[in-house]
Amino acid sequence: MKATPLAIPEVILFEPRIFGDARGFFFESFNQCQFESAVGHSVSFVQNNHSRSIQHVLRGLHYQIKQPQGKLVRVVVGEVFDVAVDIRRSSPTFGRWVGEKLSAENKKQLWVPTGFAHGFIVLSEHAEFLYNTTDYWAPEYERCIIWNDSTLNIQWPITGNTPVLSEKDEGGVTLNTAEVYD
Questions:
Q1: pLDDT the model gives residue 159
Q2: Which 8-state DSSP code applies to residue 115?
Q3: Which of 39, 37, 32 is nearest to 11 (CA)?
Q4: Which of 57, 94, 111, 117 could serve as 12's disulfide partner, Cβ 3.0–4.6 Å?
């Protein structure tokens, strides 16, 4: 598995080696030793999540201010544009974001470590999104930064359609007023 640190080096893109023929394909989607070698520390996943969304749904930018979650994310149906935003105030990359297209076709995965807000927009007719987390979901600590915060200036690949948002995501706050990590 190829591991590539992105412009914010703690966020890592994983690209599997795929073995395919006329019968189908096989690839190793996770290897603990290779993963920990790439991220530089031990990681334990405690929860696996699976969501399905229709085209133009934008989810995020989510994080938990306590019980922060590292997330290893991938798409098994369709395609999304996935975004990680550094919200660690002491970080030299505070307020910067990185984004990648993840799809069932490219089979790429993105490691979003703790200290980051996370979101995605569905580019295909629908998408099924899987993520493994390093801590449990804790709704009382859940926070949301608004997807179109002008300070972040995320270049979402939105083509003429307003994204479909949940009530929670519509109520997201700006980075300047959000609770962030030290």
A1: 78
A2: T
A3: 39
A4: 111
What is the per-residue pLDDT for 178? Answer: 98
* Annotated active-site residue in 131, 136, 141, 181: 131
Cβ–Cβ < 8 Å for 86, 178: no
Known catalytic residue at 41: no
Task: Tell me how far apart the alpha carbons of residues 76 and 147 are, in angstroms, rounded to a whole number.
Answer: 24
Q: How far is CA 139 from CA 116, 127, 160, in A?
A: 17, 24, 33
Tokens representing residue 58 in the block:
């934008």
pTM for the model stands at: 0.95
Contact call for residues 145 and 174 (beta carbons, < 8 A): yes
**62 among known catalytic residues:** yes
Report the C-alpha gap between 65 and 72 in whole angstroms: 18
Give residue limits of the domains in the chain: 44-177
Look at strands 79-86 and 116-122 and give their pairing. Answer: antiparallel
Residue type, 72: L
* Amino acid found at 30: F
pLDDT in the model for residue 55: 96
Q: What kind of fold does domain 44-177 have according to CATH? A: Jelly Rolls (2.60.120)
Instruction: Tell me the average confidence (pLDDT) per consecutive run of 10 residues in the chain, 182 residues long.
Output: 96 94 91 94 97 97 98 98 98 98 97 98 97 97 97 92 93 98 96
